[in-house]
Amino acid sequence: MKVLVAMSGGVDSAVSALLLKQQEADITAANMRFWEYEENCEIPQQQQSSSKGESALQNPTNVIKKRITSCCSPEDLGDAERTASSMHIPFYALKMEADFRKSVIEPFIDDYKNARTPNPCVHCNTFIKFGEFYDKATTLGFDKIATGHYADVVLLDNGRYAIGPAEDEHKDQGYYLYGLSQKALSRTIFPLAKLTKEEVRKLAEENDISIAQKPESQEICFIPENNYRNFLKKEGVKFQTGFVKDTKGKILAKHSGKENYTVGQRKGLNLAVGHPLYVLKILVNGDVIVGTKEEMDQKTFIVDQLIFQGLSPSDFNGSSKVECLVQIRYNSKPVLATMTLNSSKSDNGIQVDVELLEDTYAITPGQAAVFYHPHEKYILAGGKIRSFE
Fold first, then answer.
1. What is the spatial distance between Cα 366 and Cα 361, in angstroms, rounded to a whole number?
2. DSSP secondary-structure letter at 241?
3. Which helix (H) or strand (E) holds 4?
4. Is 221 a catalytic residue?
């Protein structure tokens, strides 16, 4: 079995490669080059004791080998190459800047322009890691791809594949993976599915992987210093001014750009009204609506661009309600809900009406809503929150 392993330069993907190598899989490592940094980084000359995979990857114009910059950082690329070399695994870097800009950067910018809060990690997984990367691997003759995600792939009784829960519930990344197609799911390996983060670091230590204790990045990979506002300005986005209003339409202040706000935000509003206020809505015309925490309580919302995993599209029609758990952001707990097919025509694919049966916080247009089986916790489907009107 020939496997192309996405190696980011972190301990998770390194241990994923290690486990596959121990299983005697025929593996090649690849780092995806997403983003050009202003300063180049010298990458050591690759040293390999094996030429496996060389013929498959040596000529394509979208492949380079050394002395490049990378996302998440130039240092990450160096770590990935050195780790692969220490394991005697062939290593390559894939040039994917154009794909990344089209599928991740441009939607990120457009969402902020249109008063939505983007989720670039979902786009990256759906269209890049398990889209373009998967397609490249298939074209180059690999049987499977593998990544260091904390997730599992399950084959259901109805013959469909779905993302299942990882052993480490604190690291589970299924929320970001709802966009995987059936083909990609059937040919993806998640070696860390049954491991905790502590066990992964221990394996790395035991096998002399130099990045065993490398810290994790909690930031959006292409946003320097986690300052998305500066990034938008550098990309030429003109912030749209407007008014901060309460739910009755009273003007409380003038603001310098709707792009500075996100639904659920409390800090930084600088509104002296005697009680905490939260951002409830961001309007396309530039106005920002604020209110109390109680006014944030929403029980229904619409999700479009639906992608099916465990739930078959043919089984989801008419007015029947599907009981599920729904998760509306990565760090939120899935809550009980029902979803019903919305018959309204939409340019954004299939859309559903969601009714919450439990409380959750700050439903945010632009974010992903992921639906899980209420008991077995595998993904039924997922989509993008359109509105809560």
1. 15
2. P
3. strand 2-6
4. yes
Which of 71, 121, 221, 324 does the annotation list as catalytic?
221
Q: Which residue shows structure tokens 């486990």?
A: 19
- What pLDDT is recorded for position 209? 96
Confidence at residue 350, expressed as pLDDT on a 0 to 100 scale: 87
Task: Quickly name the fold that domain 239-295 has.
Answer: SH3 type barrels. (2.30.30)
Class of domain 298-387: mainly beta
Rounded average pLDDT over 75-80: 89
The structure's pTM equals 0.88
Which pLDDT value is given to residue 57?
53
Q: What does the domain layout of the chain look like in residue ranges? A: 2-225, 239-295, 298-387
Classify residue 259 by its DSSP letter.
G
Q: Of 30-34, 44-48, 274-278, which range is least confident? A: 44-48
The candidate with the shortest Cα–Cα distance to 222, out of 115, 95, 364, 121, is 121
Give the span between the Cα atoms of 164 and 229, in whole angstroms: 35
68, 33 Cβ separation under 8 angstroms: yes
Same fold, 239-295 and 298-387: no
pLDDT digits (tens, 9 = 90+) for 182-209: 999 999 999 999 999 999 999 999 999 9
Give the whole-angstrom CA distance, residue 184 versus residue 161: 9
Give the closest residue to 140 by CA, choosing from 69, 83, 56: 56
- Judged against a pLDDT cut of 70, whether residue 51 lies above it is answered with no
Element spanning 282, H or E: strand 278-282
The CA-CA-CA angle for residues 127, 130, 134, to 5°, reads: 115
Residue 199: Cβ within 10 Å count: 14
Q: Which of 194, 233, 197 is nearest to 212 (CA)?
A: 197
Please enumerate in sequence order all residues whose Cβ is within 8 A of that of 198, keeping only pairs 6 or more positions apart, or say none: none
The residues, ordered by sequence, that sit 6+ positions from 323 with a Cβ below 8 Å of its Cβ are: 336, 337, 338, 374
- Number of other CB atoms surrounding residue 72 within 10 Å: 17
Q: State the catalytic residue, choosing from 41, 72, 121, 124.
A: 124
CATH, domain range 2-225: 3.40.50.620
Q: Would residue 72 show up in a list of annotated catalytic residues for this protein?
A: no
